[in-house]
Amino acid sequence: MMRTDYIKGTSLKLIQSDQIYKMTSDTYHLANFIKIRKHDRVLEVGCNHGVIIMVASLNTDQECLGIDINQNALELAKQNVILNEIKNVRFEWLDFKHIRQNNFDLVVCNPPYYKHQNKDDDQAKLDVSLSLEDLAKQAFVVLKDKGRCSIILAAERMGEAIQIFANQRFALKRMQMIHHSLHHPASSVCMEFNKLGNVHCKVEAPIVNVEV
Description:
Distance between the termini: 19 Å
């Protein structure tokens, strides 16, 4: 079943399908967390229905690229770009590890949350096809010097992510904790890493999770 929604905080329409993972509060928070400069070339890894890459495209005059290994998700993302008459976004059916371009200013990704335990577990929530190590290593390849990589991750994996990205010569530059309520520990965190950057991190005001 297909339905059309709006992306909160924008005028963008979004076609969603019961067959594809729908927009969640994590998608919304990451889309709001990323900082896009006028001439940024943006790559979204695992773009699904295209929410984040469409939001990013509104603030840059450069071409933005969304990639996914789910062909059905890509077809839906293409429909959303057409629906919103966006001209500077294209999509490719492509594994991130196979990209050899090195001219991106920002890589953005909502990576799998949990370590792979069982081959029958939900792959969209597990690091089966793209581990954090894979993400950090390949982000270093495709980004320009001082380029950024922005992700959202379960808060419990924050320390692991910082160490993994540091091993690939990234510095944590910005972060924002997300809570179910002000009385709960953080459930997830948005992080922006800088390729070959200096160690200096800005901690944004925390936010309380909302349904979108």
